[in-house]
Design brief:
By secondary structure, the protein is mostly helical. It folds into two domains: 197 residues, Orthogonal Bundle (Hypothetical protein af1432), CATH 1.10.3210; 79 residues, no CATH class. Helix content is 62%, strand content 3%. A two-stranded antiparallel sheet has the order 1-2. α4 packs across α6. The longest helix is centred in the middle third of the chain and has 24 residues. The radius of gyration is 19 Å and the shape is globular.
Length: 302
């Protein structure tokens, strides 16, 4: 896990717009500081992102890469045993896992496992971090389903979905550190600050990790699918995937419920969702199939 140099703790609760603006600025300045050390992916995950680009890679070499990180190897083996991947026989070795599920799927599993172990952790916000993790995983799988119905690259869609909100995790880690000496503010009170910086933070992490292609650009602008002047189908896919994730109980936007507890819900305008669906050429009937397929997949994973 990366840390931050000079994160002077603060304990004043967020009670005013001025305090929220100050927190937003402070988080942004920390991300922009040359002293900021972002959370890093394990070396094996970075290597897999690179070698997965080659079609003639020896799959046994992949298993050898994973074996150097015992915790990561254990997590991958656990994921492979889920109903979604297990098949008719149990996977007992990493070699078997690689040949069973293939390079791209293994890459996705390794990246998912690495994020779960190294990024989605902040002691003061463990509950919210788990919700963000579940949302990211759900969005990744739903994005892959949408991509298959819309003639896009399913693996690129999966990566976009899995990584688009890593900036939220990074920002929560920053706030957790800032309030290390006192009680953490309720998530709903700091959520506007988190939301304001999370896209730029996601882009920063993506560039630090040297993600393939222009994924850094996509996840750094994932709330505006016409950011380049014309609709970006990958970002439109993310919009739809997030809305479906919300419908299936894995939303991401933070507010307070009637009991004054933080909950995560999606508040993307319906007009944006409709525009995204139209840009992808998805009929209501096909969208229903996407939701059905997505629900079956999410039922099979954690």
């Amino acid at each position: 896990m990366g840390n931050i140099v000079d994160t002077t703790s603060i304990s004043t609760p967020i009670r005013s717009t001025a305090q929220l603006a100050d927190l937003t600025e402070r988080i942004g300045n920390l991300f922009a500081s040359p002293d900021y050390v972002p959370p890093m992916l394990p070396t094996v995950a970075v290597e897999l992102l690179d070698i997965a680009r080659y079609v003639d890679i020896d799959l046994r070499r992949i298993a050898q890469h994973i074996e150097v990180d015992p915790m990561l190897a254990g997590r991958v083996m656990s994921l492979v045993q889920s109903p979604m991947y297990i098949g008719q026989a149990h996977v007992r070795t990493l070699d078997h896992a690689v040949f069973r599920i293939g390079l791209n799927t293994l890459r996705d599993l390794v990246l998912e496992a690495a994020l779960n172990m190294r990024l989605f952790t902040a002691p003061g916000y463990s509950t919210v971090m788990e919700l963000v993790r579940r949302h990211s995983v759900a969005t990744a799988h739903i994005s892959r389903v949408i991509a298959r119905y819309t003639d896009q690259d399913p693996e690129e869609a999966f990566l976009c979905g899995l990584l688009h909100d890593v900036g939220i995790a990074a920002a929560l880690i920053v706030v957790d550190d800032l309030y290390a000496e006192g009680p953490r503010p309720q998530v709903s009170t700091i959520w506007p600050a988190i939301h304001a910086v999370h896209e730029s933070a996601s882009m920063l992490l993506a560039r630090t990790w040297d993600l393939p292609g222009d994924l850094a650009h996509v996840i750094g602008h994932h709330h505006d699918f016409v950011v380049t002047g014309h609709p970006d189908r990958r970002i439109a896919t993310l919009h739809l995937a997030e809305r479906i994730a919300q419908k299936l109980g894995r939303g991401i936007r933070c507010t307070s419920n009637a009991h004054n507890k933080s909950v995560l819900v999606d508040t993307t305008p319906q007009s944006t969702i409709a525009a995204a669906r139209l840009s992808l050429g998805l009929s209501h009937d096909v969208l229903s199939l996407v939701v059905q397929d997505s629900e079956e997949i999410l039922d099979a994973i954690r």
